[in-house]
Amino acid sequence: MNFPSELKYSKDHEWVRVEGNVGVVGITDFAQKELGDIVFLDVTSVGTTFSKEEVFGTVEAVKTVSDLFMPVSGKVVEFNTALEGNPELVNSDPYGAGWIVKVELSSPSDIDTLLASDAYTQLIGA
Q1: Any residues with CB less than 8 A from the CB of 124 and at least 6 apart, and which?
Q2: Average pLDDT along the chain
Q3: How many contiguous H segments (helices) and E segments (strands) does the chain have?
Q4: Residue 16 class from Cβ within 10 Å (0-12 exposed, 13-18 middle, 19+ buried)?
Q5: What gap in Å lies between CA 90 and CA 26, rounded to an integer?
Q6: How far apart, in whole angstroms, are the C-alpha atoms of residue 32 and residue 125?
Q7: DSSP per-residue letters across 28-69
Q8: Domains annotated on the chain, with CATH
Q9: Roughly how many angstroms between the first and final C-alpha of the chain, as a whole number?
């Protein structure tokens, strides 16, 4: 499995890439493999402010529906609209074209509480 070192990871299997004051959020390679074929994402939270670890949407796979947890506090400023017609991008490119939301960080220090790639790898036992 792939866990890029430039990303930070949550115990709930989301990742964050910081771009200035914005965090790009998606689910990890591990999470997408565990879920299986993703068929739909329900994220209607653009413009909403979330606290760290709050549910900001759901991801539906062939075999299950799972909550998406916000790894950092902030306001959702963008949803990846490419996922509306191609939710499988989360499976095929979880760290690239399969990103889910962009969040304006309200507490940039939240990033420091997330896991580095080696710690996340240990968490999942990979």
Answers
A1: 13, 30
A2: 95
A3: 4, 9
A4: buried
A5: 8
A6: 16
A7: -HHHHHHH-SEEEEE---TT-EE-TT-EEEEEEESS-EEEEE
A8: 16-121 (2.40.50.100)
A9: 8
pLDDT-derived band at 67, boundaries 50, 70, 90: very high
Determine the Cα–Cα distance for residues 5 and 35; give it in Å rounded to an integer: 23
> Residues 52, 72: contact at Cβ < 8 Å?
yes
pTM over 0.70: yes
Give the pLDDT score at 84. Answer: 93
Element (H, E) at 14: strand 14-19
pLDDT class for 44, splitting at 50, 70, 90?
A: confident
pLDDT of 103 above 90: yes
Tokens, residue 78? 């963008």
